[in-house]
# Entry
Amino acid sequence: MSSLDELVAGAREDARRRQEEVPLETLRSRLGGREGARPFSEALVRPGLSLIAEFKRRSPSAGELRPGVGVADTVRAYERGGAAALSILTEERQFGGSLHDLRAAREASDLPILRKDFVVDPYQLFESAANGADAALLIVAALSDDELAGLYAQARELDLDCVVEVHDEAELERALEIDVDVLGINNRDLDDFTVDVETTVRLLTDVPAGKAVVSESGYAHRGQLDELERIGVDAVLIGETLMRAEEPELAVRQLTGDEEATREHYLERASEE
# Structure
């Protein structure tokens, strides 16, 4: 069984367990009191390259990222730094996430939120909407064509935007078959976790005009982001670099290229010292 297969199997099992604990009808009833959605897709297509700042506790390839770090403080720092949106990783087994992290982020920040997980069951979309997400990740490699189409349609019914993630040309074709609005191009191979940032460059040439494109994995400095903006990528999702940063607010400002705000931040720190 590949790493992706293990993650998908775990996601199915965990979704079944949570549904026994919190029935679907309970989630449906919660949706009536759902706050107004924050337009996730719109945040990606504003002028310049939008930064989706991710909160994740650990990863299979990197291990624990920053033990003891709080969701609320981190996402507030991301927002102050100029992030356009948040990504909250909720997968439990390999990434240490939870729906609690998603709720905490919703309470702490006004930014639109992507729930990042291995979504394989419609129940998870109801969970996402009921717990504060504005968008959900659908990974093409983890789903059959029928599953992908069904989950995408269900998400739209729940007023959730979707980032439909692809890794190669075949997956891109499958995503385009259902006419998705937002494509995520992941530079990370989900089987061996290697990263090749040329994946985005290669696949971008086959993306039709009018689609928003999010590039994921492998980015750590502004020069890389300048190149993404130059070739027409709309947004970049960054997690590990920000989670390891001692000052996530400053790290976001440096990545977004807000030189004036970065300078002000340094001056404020100097005056405090």
Remarks:
- Residues 77 and 140 are 32 Å apart (CA to CA).
